[in-house]
Design a protein that fits this description.
This protein is α/β, with parallel strands linked by helices. The chain has a single domain, classed as Glutaredoxin (3-Layer(aba) Sandwich), CATH 3.40.30. 32% of the residues lie in helices and 31% in strands. Strand 7 and strand 8 form a beta hairpin. The termini are far apart.
Length: 138
């Protein structure tokens, strides 16, 4: 592992990873190793190049990565090259967004959605992080 400064954002990189814009591209087995507490909020997008919904959602991921730089880390995995990650998280459809906080899996969002619907779970993750003492409704 080494640290690389990527267009103003410090990101931990592993062998087999690359940075495009502010999105960290991961490959097996590094995707599983990467999700550790030191990274705070991490959104992991799992998709493929042949998935139409994944391609339609890509501009949303890029826009969100720019908007939330410094607040959360956006990473992606190409499902065609990530059988370990797919099996570990039980991914069987695309696209999927997996949400992690301090290395712990929190939730997932499946399928294509419009930009406001895509962005809302990110805002919710930040709100929960900012207000850790808020009560959860029963």
């Amino acid at each position: 592992m080494y640290i690389e400064k990527a267009r103003g954002a410090h990101t931990a990189l592993y062998k087999g990873t690359s940075i495009d814009s502010r999105i960290l591209h991961l490959a097996d087995p590094d995707a599983l190793t990467f999700l550790q507490p030191s990274h705070g909020i991490v959104i992991l997008e799992i998709g493929t190049h042949w998935c139409v919904q994944c391609r339609l959602m890509r501009p949303f991921i890029e826009k969100t990565a720019l908007e939330f730089t410094g607040s959360m880390l956006i990473a992606d995995v190409n499902a065609d090259d990530a059988s370990l990650t797919m099996k570990h998280f039980g991914v069987d459809s695309f696209p999927q967004l997996l949400f992690f906080e301090d290395g712990q899996y929190r939730k997932r969002e499946c399928g294509f959605r419009d930009y406001p619907s895509f962005r809302q779970p990110m805002l919710d993750s930040l709100d929960a992080r900012i207000q850790p003492n808020c009560q959860t409704p029963n």
